[in-house]
Amino acid sequence: MARQLVILCVLFAIASAKHFAPRDLIDEATRQLEELKQIVHGDILVAHDDLSDAAMAFNIYANTVLKESIVSLQEEAETIHAQLQTIKDLGHAAGKDISTCTKGREPHLLRLPGHYAEAITNCTRGLMGEAGALAKNAKYIVDITINQVHHLEHQLANCKGEILCISPLITEIELGKIRLPQNIKTEVQATQSVLTTLKISSQSCGNDHVAEYTTEATSILGDITACVNRIIP
Length: 233
Prior knowledge:
Distance between the termini: 125 Å
Shape: rod-shaped
Organism: Tribolium castaneum
Mean pLDDT: 90
Number of helices: 6
Helix content: over 70%
CATH architecture: Up-down Bundle
Signal peptide: 1-17
Protein name: Protein TsetseEP domain-containing protein
Structural class: mainly alpha
Low-confidence stretches: 1-21
Strand content: under 5%
Keywords: Signal
CATH class: Mainly Alpha
């Protein structure tokens, strides 16, 4: 009989709790929720700054690499043109007409630097556009983190002051103070990591195209040289 009385008392307490919410519990939930909102808002602003800085740093780096690559390309072109001029001087000194060797090849050779400079520029600009898009997308992902706070606000409103509804919600809010800032931080770090990888790609824009230019130009110069060698004994 005593046991049944205890059970009835517990059930009565639970039933009463559903309709009675101490003011301090509601205030605590509201306070913690506002604190979470401020934390997330602050972290979002910091994340925006970090992402903007990362994108800007990439653009500066890529522009520097672009300029250096164009200089390298010009230096390679000057070397090739100097070798071409030496071949033409040899033909002139030998009194031989080597125009048949240079007629179709020299104009193409002279156009190559411009072609590859444009390719390097397009490649680099493309990566800069990609970096900007990555930063923009990351900012969006960071921004919508606040939606989870709004969802908690909606849940609190729906609790209608019931203790059994508010208590677990406070726990969820406390967990949010750890989880949401970490989610924001993870997104920023992931984007920064991708931008670091893009820096390597920007180097390839220059290195690969300069190497391609040198290979193609050297091949054309080799054809001219072989042709001239057949004319000059």
